[in-house]
Design goal:
By secondary structure, the chain is α/β, with parallel strands linked by helices. The chain is built from 13 helices and nine strands. The chain binds iron/sulfur cluster.
């Protein structure tokens, strides 16, 4: 799952070293299964999984209460010093301020005082009003807002059910979030890459709102359902080309820079770090999803693989989060590079790429034991970032950076 904001570090276990599964540290709560937008690339409503059809539209108060209890139980049992909780949908703000107020209030009282909670609402931005902002300030919740570029770009994909674009409504909210008093509750922008657009025009438009971070997300896809414009030709790297143009503008820009977690993670990995995000590096996933009915599922981005892919058969009423730690799907996502296919294990950029994002590896028959469907793009982009960063290091060692 991609949400805007400080990524939860995934690598260091809280408990003793060894093969024991790692406790969850990112809890994605689906408080609303419906949305007021109908984006054409949405993985909730337009992917292979149809679980949303039978989900309650809004999580019931009793379910929300039980979710809070289960998260607090997990935090206590594993002495978690920090965790991230993301309220998600559909569109989570459709659940309404009083529901969100009750949920956040319950979380505040249920979590151990020794656990720092990073609270995020991932929203399409159209419903942010005074009441929502007041809640964010009250509970220290940050808003991650989706925007794909200027009106012509964003409104190609991000439209309401009548086909009307969402850009202008979101832009109005972003101008409020950019004000000094609201900046602390703004996590940043989430932009899904469309390679038919001008990357620098998109980047400059997003930058014009002065967001604290821009999360660049590759469209979901896999070998059976390739992403748009990702052909079988390994020499074609449209996503690397698009991202490289943005990287080359972002990397040398005078600071303080707007954060781009994907680029930061690749640089960190190139320099020997852990990366800290799920989509590169191959670190173990520490994320779990709770649906509106209380079902516990794996990453909801697995919805793109096949119907029922994210399901585990567990729920917050009968099962603690601990019981999920032995589920084969969770174990596979925690196996890191140990679960990768031969091609990845022999790949020269494996340490940085880590096989890419787990859902992007799926192919019917071989499951997730494949390279990422974005493999040519990943190799190309990682090579470019490595050459840029390591070239700078060489120059530094030889006597100072030229800029
Ligand atoms: S670039 Fe491709 S082959 Fe190499 S590790 Fe990533 S997904 Fe695997």
């Amino acid at each position: 799952m991609r949400t805007v904001g400080e990524p939860v570090k995934q690598i260091q276990p809280e408990g003793p070293a060894g093969p024991a599964p790692l406790p969850f540290r990112e809890f994605l709560i689906k408080v609303q299964s419906s949305c007021n937008l109908a984006c054409d690339y949405c993985y909730v409503y337009r992917a292979a999984d149809t679980g949303w059809r039978t989900q309650p539209r809004t999580m019931a108060s009793a379910t929300a209460e039980q979710v809070c209890h289960r998260i607090a139980e997990h935090a206590r049992d594993h002495a978690l010093s920090s965790l991230q909780i993301v309220l998600h949908g559909g569109e989570p703000l459709l659940a309404g301020p009083s529901f969100l107020d009750a949920l956040l209030g319950r979380l505040r009282t249920a979590l151990p005082s020794s656990t720092r909670a990073d609270l995020v609402i991932q929203t399409n931005g159209t419903l942010v009003d005074d009441a929502v902002l007041a809640l964010c300030h009250e509970y220290g919740v940050r808003l991650g807002v989706s925007l794909d570029g200027g009106p012509a770009v964003n409104d190609r994909h991000r439209v309401d059910h009548a086909g009307r674009g969402s850009h202008d409504a979101v832009a109005k909210v972003l101008r409020r979030l950019g004000q000094d008093r609201h900046r602390p509750v703004w996590a940043g922008l989430l932009c899904t890459v469309d390679v038919t657009t001008d990357p620098l025009a998109v980047y400059e438009h997003l930058l014009s709102f002065q967001p604290p971070a821009i999360d660049l997300m590759l469209p979901l896809g896999n070998w059976d359902h390739p992403p748009p414009h990702r052909s079988a030709d390994p020499a074609s790297v449209p996503y690397a080309d698009w991202l490289r143009a943005v990287f080359d503008r972002w990397y040398p820009a005078p600071g303080p820079p707007t954060r781009i977690p994907f680029f930061e993670a690749v640089i960190d990995l190139v320099l020997g770090g852990a990366g800290g995000i799920e989509s590169v590096g191959g670190g173990p996933s520490r994320m779990v999803v709770v649906d509106t009915d209380g079902s516990l599922t794996q990453s909801d981005q697995l919805k793109t693989a096949y119907d029922g892919a994210p399901g585990t058969g567990r729920d917050v009423w009968r099962d603690s989060f601990d019981t999920l730690l032995t589920h084969p799907g969770i174990l596979a996502r925690q196996a890191g590079t140990g679960a990768l296919c031969e091609e990845c294990r022999a790949c020269p950029v494996l340490r940085v790429c880590g096989g890419g994002h787990y859902p992007h590896r799926y192919r019917q028959g071989s499951g997730f034991a494949n390279p990422s469907v974005y493999s040519p793009d990943l190799r190309s982009l990682i090579g470019h970032v490595s050459r840029t960063v390591l070239g700078d290091l060489d120059r530094l060692i030889e006597g100072g950076l030229p800029r």
